[in-house]
Design a protein that fits this description.
7-stranded antiparallel beta sheet; alpha+beta; 29% strand; 197 residues; 25% helix
């Protein structure tokens, strides 16, 4: 990450009274143990624009549920992004950008091995929520950046036609769009990347 999140990790670690290195490793939990995670996401079209709902079937869900919170990042009273996460979370599993899009992560296993050269998945989502100017920029960044490991990223904008699942391995991507106004459902399996090439 080129030290991008080090200052934030040090500050959070001081508040939580833990070593900043341990806090940083905790933020890499998905990349380290992807096979332990499960979840579902649905993006539905409505007359007012898309609605996103998700569940998370992660280990120790009772602890995660009790400690979950909505963290809003602002600059000069403007919402930069919001992260549905936990104290100490730097990366994002579910986030909403102030620039009109949201991203959710679903776990998926890939036959492609993890990459030590890729960007950590949760930190890439955070970076996109913070930096992408709009839905199109987020789609490009989430599709093209090499990642540490596989992921299914549901990206939803402000219009019903801005709903897509970005199927990722560490180095490849494929897009899955809904059929018209059908619900867009993401679970824990590839649909496009599973097709023979």
């Amino acid at each position: 990450t080129g030290g991008r999140f080090e200052e934030e990790a040090r500050a959070l670690a001081e508040i939580l009274n833990v070593p900043w290195q341990e806090l940083t490793v905790a933020n890499l939990a998905y990349d380290i143990a992807v096979s332990l995670f499960g979840c579902s996401t649905v993006a539905l079209p409505t007359p007012q624009g898309p609605v996103v709902a998700r569940n998370m079937d992660w280990p120790q869900q009772d602890i995660l549920a009790r400690s979950s919170c909505l963290i809003r990042y602002t600059s000069e009273e403007r919402l930069m992004f919001a992260n549905a996460g936990w104290p100490g979370a730097i990366g994002a599993v579910t986030g909403l950008s102030g620039n009109g899009f949201c991203v959710t992560l679903n776990a998926v296993l890939s036959s492609e091995p993890p990459s030590t050269d890729g960007y950590p998945d949760l930190l890439q989502i955070r970076r996109v929520l913070e930096d992408a100017a709009n839905f199109a920029a987020a789609l490009k960044a989430l599709s093209e950046q090499p990642l540490t490991t596989s992921a299914l990223l549901t990206l939803v904008g402000t219009d019903n036609d801005q709903r897509v699942v970005i199927e990722r391995t560490a180095t490849r991507s494929a897009l899955r769009w809904p059929d018209g106004d059908a619900p867009l459902i993401t679970t824990n399996d590839y649909r496009e990347l599973a097709k023979p090439q």
